[in-house]
Design a protein that fits this description.
Layout: E1 11-13, E2 16-18, E3 33-42, E4 45-49, E5 56-57, E6 63-64, E7 66-69, E8 72-85, E9 90-94, E10 98-105, E11 108-115, H1 122-139, E12 147-151, E13 163-165, E14 168-170, H2 183-194, H3 196-201, H4 211-228, H5 247-250, H6 268-289
Parallel strand pairs: 11-12, 12-14
Antiparallel strand pairs: 1-2, 3-8, 4-9, 5-6, 7-8, 10-11, 13-14
Length: 293
């Protein structure tokens, strides 16, 4: 997986540069830009990528996704172009280890890279992504990018699962889910797609105010899943307001002790209740007070 780059392009705001050091418990803050990326990969690897592919003409004049690398005869060169994003990511696996499926929905090209054992859950994941595209267009505005890539990471790479990058998300699935618990693949797919807005286009400072991306994305996950899988999430006003284990108690725990944003959290649990649980609970319960549903 090629992602989580550091250092990143700094953000100049309020007459100064906002460029925090690396912190293990935080994500990042970076400015928008245009990315032209060229990768030389062995022919036996299959590439899952953010951004559209720049087609290349071969010696026969035909256009292809990749061309032979003249410096490395066993490699292929991929050229990718992304505009108006503040990060870039890709993933590779042996070509025979990944399933590949492509759909178009609401003018968005959706690419799925799935593990063979999880292939039966692909229709469920696709329905979840479609639901996220519909609800985000209704509540915010239509997803503006031409592509969305959804990567199902292998079991041995679970540390890379459940992550968001502009136009690419990692959303794992499971080979056996007889009770259709909806956490995987539905819940994680909707959540990571929600980050295309809250983090992606909002471009909030994840160092200093992690609740602006995780809190609003968790609220979106809760509401979108409540609409799509009505029996899975509780109604508004409930204290169990998100999609993971432990959230029913997250609302009762103290707020963060440090005013220093995500890097002021001493543990992952403290970050969780600060960035995920309480913002979701507050957003869910404020809406009825303001006349929402």
């Amino acid at each position: 997986m090629g992602g989580q780059w550091f250092p990143k392009v700094g953000v100049y705001q309020r007459d100064t540069w906002n460029c925090h050091a690396y912190h293990a418990n935080t994500e990042f803050f970076s400015d928008f830009g245009v990315y032209d990326v060229e990768l030389s990969l062995p022919n036996g690897l299959f590439l899952a990528h953010a951004a559209p592919v720049c087609l290349q003409k071969g010696a026969d004049g035909a256009e292809r996704d990749a061309s032979l690398d003249p410096a490395r005869p066993l490699n292929a060169i991929w050229k990718l172009h992304a505009e108006d994003v503040h990060d870039f990511a890709w993933a590779v696996m042996p070509s025979r280890s990944w399933g590949y499926t492509h759909f178009e929905y609401r003018k968005t090209q959706i690419f799925y890279y799935s593990q063979g054992a999880n292939s039966e859950n692909l229709p469920r994941q696709h329905e979840a992504i479609k639901a996220a595209l519909r609800t985000s267009a209704e509540w915010f505005f239509p997803y503006p990018y031409p592509v969305l890539t959804v990567v199902d990471v292998p079991e041995e790479a679970r540390a890379a699962d459940g992550m968001e990058y502009p136009t690419l998300i990692t959303a794992g699935s499971v080979p056996f889910d007889p009770f259709h618990l909806r956490m995987e693949p539905e819940g994680v797919s909707v959540h990571e797609f929600g980050h295309q807005y809250f983090y992606g286009m909002l471009a909030s400072n994840e160092f200093e105010e992690p609740w602006l991306d995780e809190g609003f994305t968790s609220w979106f996950t809760h509401k979108a899943m409540q609409r799509t899988c009505q029996s899975y999430f509780p109604a508004a006003g409930s204290r169990s307001v998100d999609f993971g284990n432990g959230l029913p108690t997250g609302w009762r725990l103290p707020w963060i002790r440090s005013p220093n944003g995500a890097f002021g959290c001493e543990t992952g649990r403290e970050l969780f209740r600060t960035a995920y649980a309480k913002p979701t609970w507050c957003s869910t319960n404020w809406r009825p007070c303001w006349g929402g549903r």
